[in-house]
Amino acid sequence: MDRQSAIDTILDHYENPRNYGRLDNATFVHEGRNPGCGDLVRLYVRLDGEDRIEAIRFEGEGCTISQAAASLLTGLVLGESLDDVLKMDEMLLADALGPEVVMNRLPCVNLSLRILQEGGRAYRQT
Amino acid sequence: MKHDFETPLDVAAVRADFPVLEREVRPGVPLVYLDNAATSQKPLSVIEAMNDYYRRYNANVHRGIHKLSEEATDAYEGARKRIAQFINAASYREIIYTRNTTESINLVAWTWGQANLGPGDVILSTEMEHHSNIVPWQLLARRVGCEVRYVPITEGGELDMEAFHQMLDELPVKLVAVTHMSNVLGTILPVREIVEAAHAAGAVALVDGAQSTPHIPVDVQEMDADFFAFSSHKMLGPTGIGVLYGKRAILEEMPPFLGGGDMIKRVELGKSEWNDLPWKFEAGTPSIAEAIGLKVAIDYLEGVGMENVHAHEVAITAYALERLAEVPGVRVLGPSDPTRKGGVAAIVMDDAHPHDIAQILDHEGIAVRAGHHCAMPLHQRYNVVASARASFYLYNTFEEVDRLIEAIYKVKETLTF
């Protein structure tokens, strides 16, 4: 992916976020911020009887990369099992968004995945 | 662009002394270094002085009766005298080496603060402080039960002096801890007036000089501060060394900070006797090469002349503020009068997050800092999460400001929705 198409992808997700908004009947809701820049992501996750992600939506505010990554993440994890989500690698979103553009912004890139995994682990412990 | 601002410096000659300024960040994209409030670049003379110590006379100080140790000690203690002269301290005994401004302030909190403050006492600080002049006092307050209060700032980015005097009158203030120059707004505080009022109220005054010492002439006796803290790395020197200036009478009364070698005169298993000033506060092997590097950085700055450094930055900042004002949707936090502030422009843009701004500027070779710059309360005051900060120094040029402006237009092209 060249730099311009990576930027276009990021801007597309930022301007037209997928799965944006609240979700009723969520199994768990979890939010968090990046201390460095104040980026915020709140995830609403509904699991089915086999702990697969049946629905996921997000709300948030912050830089283009944190919000675009959250949008992208919601599409990637839909239908996945919580076990698989908890094992997801921190390069997953960076590779999908274009490492050349986002590699020095990993905390922004991974905010939403970190929130999802934190929320998933907290749900498992309850 | 054509403009009327003039600098007293031969900037091309200055730039030739800084090896890093020759580099490109990518092929064909020369570096524009505008992150000087975070740390400055180093002239070759500083780098070579530190190399020279390691190559020719590396030895521990105050210890060995041998040639190399004597040379190292002379250079290390000579640096202290040079620093005392640079800020016009009354004696080299008032110059304590630390790691940086942060450690200097923490030293005061752990020694003077711990010994002198208690329940009911107030530490008066401001809303425009760096975290290093907030958190040590919050921690101290938790330990001894005193309270930290903050003087508000005006919409224009000045300290609200009326509120300051009122708080000083009404509260049992024992310590006033203020910055000399804001690291975000660039505001230069009237420290002489602040210190005088603090003393009249019976309080001790600490001034955070991390941003002022590199950029404007500093005279601690004229300022009359009881404590003054600064870092080497922001003033052309190496990282790993900073200074706490303290008035001798206060330092004499203070308990030591860290315990260990070099800070004692005599140790018995039951008790110890502290060393004389300033070594009472300097336990363990210090940063020797770094002290020598700082001395050479001061030589460099005084060679140029601190008045000239400041005049150059006023000109560059005036030009930058004028050009930034042309760009729609761009706002600069803090005072708009370049003679009342340091060489800093904290930029907020409609529709563009500071991290996105910084990344696009980086692609154009321009280094700025994005975030809250360790001043979260200040950003909360202006209802912004963060800003993108361009900060200037003696080697920056008007052409680099032009490149900054061009890059900001690129940010707008990329991120306008």
What are the defining features of this structure?
heterodimer, A: 126 residues, alpha+beta, Sufe protein. Chain: A, 7 helices, 48% helix, globular, B: 417 residues, alpha/beta, Aspartate Aminotransferase, domain 1, Aspartate Aminotransferase, domain 2, 2 domains, 7-stranded mixed beta sheet, 4-stranded antiparallel beta sheet, 14 helices, 40% helix, 17% strand
Tell me what the structure shows.
The complex is a heterodimer of chains A (126) and B (417). Chain A has 7 helices and 3 strands, in the order αβββαααααα. Chain A is α+β, with helices and mostly antiparallel strands. In chain A, a hairpin with a 6-residue loop joins strand 1 and strand 2. The longest helix of chain A has 15 residues, at 111-125. Chain A is globular. With 417 residues, chain B is an alpha/beta fold. Chain B has 2 domains: 11-30 and 306-415, Alpha-Beta Complex (Aspartate Aminotransferase, domain 1); 47-302, Aspartate Aminotransferase, domain 2 (3-Layer(aba) Sandwich), CATH 3.40.640. Chain B contains 14 helices and 17 strands. Chain B has a 7-stranded mixed β-sheet with strand order 4-10-9-8-7-5-6, with helices on both faces. A 4-stranded antiparallel β-sheet of chain B has the order 13-14-17-16, covered by helices on one side. In chain B, helix 8 links the parallel strand 8 and strand 9 (227-231). In chain B, helix 3 (67-86) crosses helix 10 (288-304) and helix 11 runs parallel beside helix 14 (398-415). Classes of the chains: A alpha+beta (126), B alpha/beta (417). At the A-B interface, helix 1 of A face helix 12 of B.
